[in-house]
Batch of 4 targets.
Target 1
Amino acid sequence: MDGKKRASRRLADWIEGFGTDGPVNARLKKEVRGRILDLVSAAAAGWKVNPVYNKAAEEMISSYAGTGKSTGFFEGFRLPAPMAAYMNASYGHGADLDDGHRTANGHPGVVVIPAVLALAEEILPTADEVEKAIAVGYEVYVRLSNAVQPELLMRGFHGTGVVGTVAAAAACAKLLGFGAEKIHDAISLGAIQAAGLFEVSESGQMTKPINPAGAARSGMEAALLARSGIDAPSDPLEGKKGFFRAFAGAGRSEALDIREGDELKIYSCYIKMSPACRHVHPCIDAGCALRKKRKVRAEEIEEIVIETYPNAIFVTGNIAEPKNSDEAKFSMRYALAMALQEGRYSFMQLAAASSMDEETRALIRKMRIISDPSFENKEKSIRGCRVTIHYLDGEKAETTVLIPKGDAENPLGEKERREKFHDCLDGIFSDGRQQAIYDSIFAEDFQAFRLSALMKREKV
């Protein structure tokens, strides 16, 4: 890349050139299809556990029903592509079960995939074009987020909404087959409307999907505006009033330099097994491991000490005794208490927050959280915790989790991914429909409209 060009120009050049040497290889094809599968799983989970917000969003977009070629999952509305992207991203983030990236502090798939699939229903691209667009979206998301995190988060912004807008714009621009100039315009138009506050992790958690939903819609709209040929800011990232300065004070533009031989960032994104903020997952894994060693009773415990990294505490350490499942997704202590008692953390444990029993409350009140920055190390791929139970009889049980299950270094197996898919879709789709959805995702000639046609809910 030409180092004299501004970061956004270098990025646009790379996007234009990506995949021009032929179809994606078998590894990338499998990875992208797996990410689509995971988005469908997360969307089904979000449709089930976040009904109040979903109904409000569905009512809001119902006036668009029948006015487009793209499909809103579950209700089957035919919508303009930006509105279908909005709705499906809303579902995808409703259970906090969508994929993400450790160093990027956010969720690429829930923004990029709904935008690409909705646009694909309108323009009918090849499977290879869809795969390249999704890979581009992930790459832009992770690299741009790494350029502004953790400053973005510490200023109170929700990275999935902010960075996701640019990533969706880039992915849709690639899908539309733009050259570098129009790709740059799409990135620029995405950057100037990027938004999202992380106050949704403190209260009103059911509305958290509004940020990725807005990003998916706005990113696509940025690409569609770029297609029309309007002027866009020439230096959207590094400009004196640009993205880097606005969201981070100063960004690290070198994070956007993609060199020959670099592995695509989609491969380093994690996949979740539990419906909770990713910062909670090391504690869930630790709690499950401790439960296997000894049955845990609050009356036998003097103290439970959680040592973890500052960002985890900042996001999930403030809610001790959640009142409902929305708050439970951001409660480190509640998740640990349930993992210690049940040996797992699934939809059932999430829902139990609204009727929390006294044993769970007692365990939570025994907990103390200690901030230890050593439990987060990007270079060593560490983002974890240590949980120590001090018993009244003098015994001590301790477990350290440095890399939670689902990270690239500790990946889910194919069986676990299928189990997640079934658990999420169960109660919405019959076993036969689930298999048809699965088969459509992995079909050689994948088409978004075929998948979307299968995503209208059944009476099971």
Note: Residues 112 and 168 are 5 Å apart (CA to CA).
Target 2
Amino acid sequence: MSSDFRPIGASIVLTQLPSEPPEVSVVMVVYRTGPALFNAIPRVLAEPLVDEFVVVDNGSTPEDEATLRAIAEHEPRFRLVQGHGNIGFARGCNLGARTAKGHHLVILNPDAYLQQGCIASLIQAAKSFPSPCVVGARVLNSDGTEQRGGRRGEVTPVTTLLSFSHLSLSLRLFRKFEIHMEDQLLPDRPIAVPTISGACFYMSREDFQKLGGFDERYFLHVEDVDLCWRARRMGGSVVFQPAATVEHLGSTSLKHPVVVEYHKGRGLVRYFRKRADNPWRYMLAVGLSPLIMAVSVMRPALRSIFGQTRGKGK
């Protein structure tokens, strides 16, 4: 590792240093996203509040890698980190956050399109809630409907299994275990919720550092759930800001869906064991781990049977 904690071999492409410290930095981790990435980048650069845009390239195609370098050479706000390989989403975000210099950090997926006023609304919402504060945007499908996963309840082994299997939606008996809130009335102001989506969220640099960033033991998925849990456990807050919107395509990775869901299952198993605060909960987490993994990798098949509720969210 280098002295600033970047993996050896990573390089930062930067045309010029800003004359003044940036206020707002957007961090985006990229891995074989495809065409969506080059639709997302102009929307970030068009946002006047963005002083710095850090892209951590975990592994693009040679063509996309060259395009990213060309953008970095012509756009002074664009900082590109390449050459470190696929280090995972959580570790990539932490690398991007350490590279960024802004006081305000916005973590944005490469297949998420910022909508007008999103960043300003995210920052404003944090001012009214306890620190450390995580503020999530309202995540939309391309048709304008609210996407599954943008605002969620408490993620537990039971709620996860019932949600993944769609039993919490199809059987009235289990309706109270449904954690996704996109079918609920949209609030007219920011509200505290247990969990938001990592597709687009805001934290101050101070709060992100206070939490130690993402837990890098998560490779892909669930790191956002873990971050929200740790913020609340520290006495902070997790906030859903309905006025901040972002269009999220989802399912743009070139990885096979089963591989993606496998990583999600592994992340959930780790999370449930990590947060178990007594022997009973730990045994429950361990005992349900094989079932959680099985249901996770079966999700692509379950989607084809039951269809997606409110789009392609988590």
Note: The first strand starts at residue 11 and ends at 13.
Target 3
Amino acid sequence: MRKYIGKYILLFVICLAVGLSVFLFISSRNDRAEGQRFTLMNRVANEISSTNVADIDSRLSSLLSSNNWAQEYGKDNVPVDVRYISADSGEGAYAMMGDGDAVWRISRDGAVSGFLVFSFRDDRSVMTIAVSEIVVVICFIVSALFFIYIDRKVIMPFNRLSEYPERIAKNENADALPESRNRYFGRYIWGMNMLRDRLSGDNRKLRQLEKEQLTLVSTIAHGIKTPVANIKLYSEAIKSGLYRDDGIPDKKDAEVAEKITKNADDITDLVKDLLDSASKGVVVFEPHVEAFYLTEIEDFIRREYDNRLNVLRIPYTIDLKSRVMISSDKSGICRILTQLLENAIKYGDGRGITVTVDKNEDGYVFSVRDVGSRIPDSEMPYVFNSFWRGSNASDVEGNGLGLYEASFIARKLGGDIAVRYLEASEETEFEVFLPM
């Protein structure tokens, strides 16, 4: 931010330097012009002092018609008119002066004999105004270029960076922020990347703990199911009189057996609720419905994956068949597509990824296809289970929650997600459907 403030100081210094330079230029030019005019007037006065009074007018006329003065003193410093006023005429020399006129005294024998009134073309005010306007234009151009620079190098990059904390807060996939060349946000980028790494590490630990917790709960639940089922079988046998010598059911025994069966059913329901709650706590998402255009989904994918896939040399296409407005949770859809694209990058063979966005009579369809490691048909029903990882993912880092999260969000939005293998193109396709 100090560099950012420094740019404003630099702009002020530049404008100040331009203004000072113009002031010095005009002052120097005016001083030079005054000197040339003073020299010329002194020369004319000396000529007139040695001329008879009767010949002064003709002498002045001949001097004015000389072309050498413009070359010697400069065109702007040559008077357009010179008048002689006798001291005995009673005319006030200063009263005869106009703008741009100058009076020079003529002396003969130690006494004032008259005055010379020089009339000059006064272009200095025009020149000053013109130069001032040029200075204003230059300062305006410099300021405009400066603010364009600030907008391109500071404001626009910061607007892009401002989305990053929100994405981290929403648990959206976010790559590390690249370091900018001008380093205006060096500490901010460094801090955000450090925060991202810290949260990513904590999230992995949390996922592992959740997986262990769910595994423990599942183990306990499955361990409880078998004895509970046996208890229910024993209670049914008691109700039927199986253990009586005469084989005839006893009314009191049947009542006790009925209570045992009810308690066993309660335990079974409790175990089921425990498993459901443990699974639901893995992903947190609450829809926020808003209206947006499908082109915004395309912009999101290109912004997030253009550079990355170019570096990885993975070709990809986005086929946006419809550009209508949709009312849904844009962040949720982006999270779904992010999970599907991440899987396509991790498990694909790099030959290509295709993203398709379409609209039909029932709703909207988002599809991600890639060529790569095929999911066995026997494992297809389990790909959206939490913490489940296929046999093709043994050498790829992951926690088995990406597809579960995508499925969870799709259901929250009232839709669904499916997977299939396309034999003709040898592609695995994940298709998300969202109703209107």
Note: The CA atoms of residues 185 and 191 lie 10 Å apart.
Target 4
Amino acid sequence: MYTNNCFAKNRFMKKSTKILLILYILVLIPSLFMGKYLFQGIIPTDNGFEFKFKVEGIIALILMIISIILGSILFIRFIKSQPLDKALFFSSAPLVLLYGLALFLLAELTSFENTTAKSMRFLLNISQDNLYNTILWAVLLTLIFVGILFFNYFVICKPIGKVEKIVSRLGDGRVRDEKLKIGGGKQFVAIEHGLNKINNNYKFKDKTMKNDGNSTKLPKQIIKLLGKNDINELKNSGQLKKIVTLISVKLSSNHYNEKEITMEENYNFLNSYLNVISPLIRKFNGYVDKDFNGGIIAIFLKSEDAIDCAHSISRSINIKNRQNKQNPLVIPRIVLETEEVTFSSSDSESDFPISITYNIHKLERFDEICRNMSLRLIFSKSTLDNLPLNYKFLYRYIGKMTYDEKEIFMFEDLDNLPRDLSSQLIKSKATFEKGVMMYDGGKYEQAKEYFSQALKICPKDKCCYIYFNRSREKIK
């Protein structure tokens, strides 16, 4: 149905263009023949120009204006019928030619000796002895040219921004009931048609899942994690174990004062930040498993999605902090761990028929390290090992912890920190990591020396300062 309407619209446009072209030719030919009457009415004088149009000149002016309007409409339709690259070229070429011609005439105007040139020189106040005004007019022409060129590119490329937003929305699985509209030229009509087909496919699948009452359907994020369409598939296969990356986000305020803000106000305040975090988790293909006051635990199938999401959460919280300067500063603590998680069907009659089992106590221990060491984002070696080889980001080794009689090596993410602090930490990274390894090996004197050197490079390194004090206490 949509395709037929699209073709019908194209036929209508072609017919209307033919009519406009015929009208344009009918108006252009007499306007060219009567152009001499128009120029006869423009009389050069010593003080500029005088306009004395006769009846023929007025008719010629009207025909010229109508031909310019019709020509502009036809030119715009021609541009819209071209692909983006050709549209940019054909729309820019006349502007470049006019700009070049105007600069040439401006530069050579002082060398022309006819009456019209003298009138133009007087009107523009330029002469061979006054090149300053000529330069000013050239600068003004250039500014006008750049402005028109920018506006031209902005209008032609505007549909690309709409395509980006629509693709981002469809990538997150969000559909719209109404028809998606992009606008722009012929090339974007085809893109619009394709995006509407994708949107309609999404709507059809969603409708099918809602109308199929034979089994309990799973949330979209769980379907991505498990590769299962409904609860019966999971029941038939029993328990399902998968290696996933868990992310725990906890929010705290370093200006919290019970006398200034009640517990209920603090709860609502922190939840306003959590409302920003949850959509980001879904955007990066994650699933929010637990949502509690001041914190969220989410599951990701890919470690790189979890880290990208953690970076996005940090940036969003920083932006929200800057927007709400009158409110307490909210500081996130983010920890990531990659481990095996068990998915099993639940016998309860709850709305969510899946039971997800993982080691929440380990995440609590990670968060404790994050809090005690004044860190923002930490992760374990298992998460690092689960990343693709070509995934690049900045991090440093911060030590090991023992959990369940196993050693777990921990790392701090440096990409989510302010750029000035991150650059200093990168410079002190090698020295700091040597200190940590000495500390892990019980060589506290050497560790203290390395931490002292690292602090000289980055005095704001709280984690290094804590290690320095601990090394000094161990020596005593």
Note: The longest strand covers residues 330-345.
